[in-house]
C-alpha cells in the first residue's frame, strides 16, 4: 500500500500538510499519536491538534508500540496518519527501549500495511552538532529512523515554511 513520509523542521507545516493529504484520500482517517502530555503546555498543543482534525478522525495513542498499533488499525478503507516519529524516538529513549529493534518492527509494519500510511517526523540534522552526548544520541537515532522510513516510503515530502518539496515519488 502507498506510504507518504512528511519531514521538515519545527513549525514547518508538516502536520497540517499530512492531515490535508490524508483527508484527500476519501478514506476513513485514523490518527496515531505518539505524543505524551507531561505538562500543561503539551496538553494544550495536543488539544489544539485534536480540534484541528475534526470529529471524523479516530485517534489512538501509541507512544511506544507504534508498529503493533499500525498493524492493528490499518485497513484498506482507512488512511493511517502517524504524528510523529521524532517524539516516538524520544519516548523509546526515555523508556530505554531498543530503537533499532523498534525501527525494524516499524519497517515490517509499513511493509505489510493494509492501507495507506502517512508518517510525520522532524528533520533534526540541519542544525549544529549538539553539545552533549544525550542530544547527539537523540539526533543520531532520529536521523537513522528518518533515513529508514524515507527509504521505505513511496513518497517523501520535505516541508519548509509551509511549502512541500518532493524528495521522492514512486509511481
Key terms:
7-stranded mixed β-sheet, 24% strand, 171 residues, single chain, globular, 44% helix, 6 helices, alpha/beta
Helix content: 40-55%
CATH architecture: 3-Layer(aba) Sandwich
The rounded Rg comes to: 15 Å
Portion of residues in beta strands equals 15-25%
Low-confidence stretches: none
Label the structural class: alpha/beta
Count of domains = 1
Task: Give the averaged pLDDT, no decimals.
Answer: 94
CATH class group: Alpha Beta
Per the CATH scheme, the topology name is Rossmann fold
Task: Give a structural overview.
- The protein has one domain: P-loop containing nucleotide triphosphate hydrolases (Rossmann fold), CATH 3.40.50.300.
- It is globular.
- Helix content is 44%, strand content 24%.
- Strand 2, helix 2 and strand 3 form a beta-alpha-beta unit.
- With 171 residues, the chain is α/β, with parallel strands linked by helices.
- It has a seven-stranded mixed β-sheet, with helices on both faces.
In short:
The protein is of the alpha/beta class. Helix content is 44%, strand content 24%.
SSE arrangement:
Elements (H helix, E strand, L loop, with lengths): L2 E6 L5 H10 L4 E6 L6 H14 L4 E4 L4 H8 L4 E6 L1 H10 L4 H13 L5 E6 L10 H20 L2 E6 L2 E7 L2
Parallel strand pairs: 1-5, 1-6, 2-3, 2-4, 4-5
Antiparallel strand pairs: 6-7
Helix pairs in contact: 3-5, 4-6, 5-6
Enzyme class: transferase
Pathway: Cofactor biosynthesis; adenosylcobalamin biosynthesis; adenosylcobalamin from cob(II)yrinate a,c-diamide: step 5/7; Cofactor biosynthesis; adenosylcobalamin biosynthesis; adenosylcobalamin from cob(II)yrinate a,c-diamide: step 6/7
Organism: Sphingobium jiangsuense
Amino acid at each position: 500500500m502507498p506510504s507518504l513520509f512528511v519531514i521538515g523542521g519545527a513549525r514547518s507545516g508538516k502536520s497540517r500538510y499530512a492531515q490535508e493529504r490524508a483527508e484527500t484520500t476519501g478514506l476513513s482517517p485514523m490518527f496515531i499519536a505518539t505524543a505524551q502530555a507531561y505538562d500543561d503546555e503539551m496538553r494544550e498543543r495536543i488539544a489544539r491538534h485534536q480540534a484541528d482534525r475534526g470529529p471524523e478522525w479516530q485517534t489512538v495513542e501509541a507512544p511506544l508500540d507504534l508498529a503493533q498499533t499500525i498493524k492493528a488499525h490499518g485497513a484498506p478503507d482507512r488512511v493511517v496518519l502517524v504524528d510523529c516519529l521524532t517524539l516516538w524516538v524520544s519516548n523509546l529513549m526515555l523508556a530505554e527501549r531498543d530503537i533499532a529493534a523498534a525501527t525494524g518492527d516499524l519497517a515490517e509494519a509499513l511493509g505489510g500495511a493494509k492501507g495507506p500510511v502517512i508518517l510525520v517526523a522532524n528533520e533534526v540534522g540541519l542544525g549544529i552538532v549538539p553539545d552533549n552526548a544525550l542530544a547527539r544520541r537523540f539526533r543520531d537515532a532520529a536521523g537513522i529512523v528518518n533515513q529508514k522510513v524515507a527509504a521505505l516510503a513511496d513518497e517523501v515530502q520535505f516541508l519548509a515554511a509551509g511549502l512541500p518539496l518532493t524528495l521522492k515519488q514512486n509511481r
